[in-house]
Amino acid sequence: MSHVRTLAAACTVVVAVSVLAAGCGSSEQAAAEVAGVEYAVGDLNDYLATTDPGNEARAPREQAAAWLSEWVFFAALELEMAERGVAVSNAHEAQAVADMTQADPAFVPGAGGSDVAIHQRAVVLAALEWVEVEVPAAAVSGPLRHLCSRHILVASQAEAAAVLALLDAGEDFGFLAVELSQDPGSGSLGGDLGCVVEGAFVAPFETAAYAAEPGDVVVAESQFGFHVIEVISSGPATSVNHPQIDAERLALMASDAELAAAERAQLAVQDLRQQTLFELQDTVLERYAPLVRIDDRYGHWDPEQFRVVLDPVS
Q: What 3-state class would DSSP assign to 225?
C-alpha cells in the first residue's frame, strides 16, 4: 500500500505543507473526514487562498488533493496515537514552533497555513516520544572482543585442505600467504589481519575464529572463498587474552571496544525504533483507509494508495 509520506521520514524532517484535524462533529460541510474527525471546506478554502491570493480559482485541484491526502494521513495518525494513550500537548506545540523556526528563519507562526503545519509537527513529536518509550535506550552489555589473526584466502575447499597439509608439513604460514592467498591486502603482509574489534569480519570467519584456541588453524567458508585462519589471540583486551600486546596498546584496544559496543547498541535501538515507526504507519494505513470520506469536488479517496485521486477509482 503506497501513501503520501512515510512516517519514519516525517519524524526526521520539518514538513512545510501540512494540515491536521480541524474539528470533530462540526456542522460545517466537510472537505474530508476520517473516523468522524472533519476538515471543513471553509478551512480548506482559506488555506488554498493563501497559496495564491490573486488567483480567483484558488489553487489547482492537484494541490487540493495533495493537501487533503496529507491531512488524512496525519489526522489518522493522531487518532491512532490517541488510541494508544498519547495526546498532543502544548509542550509538543511549543517544541514544534521552535523546531520549525530554527529550520526556516522565515517561518512565521500564525501566518496562512502555519497553525496546521505546527500541529502536524507536534503530532510527529508525540509519535517520537511514544516510540522512545516503546523502545528504550539499550544498556551496553560490555566491551566487545578483539581478534588477532592472519589468514590465507583460497577459492575451494580442496585448496584449503592443501594449505593445511603444507602447514602440517612445516611450511611457514606467512610465506604461504604471500604465495597463495587471494586476498591482496593481507596476502602481501603474510596474511596478517592485525587485531580488530568483534564484528569487523564476516560472520562465518568470526564464528570459526572465536571458537578456536590461540595457535589453532581453522577453516571457514564465506562469500569470499575459503579462509585458512591462524588465531593468534582473542577475547577482551586484557594481557591474559592478548599476552603479545603491550599495555599501552591494550588500553587503546579496550577503549575502542567500549566505544564500538556503545555505538552498536545505539544503532540497534535506532533500527528498532524505525521499524516500530513503520509498524505504526502500517497500522494507520490499514485501520483508517476504509474510514475516510472526501467531498467529490476535490477528488476520490483511493484506500489502496491512501490518498486523494482526481479520477474515479474503478
A: strand
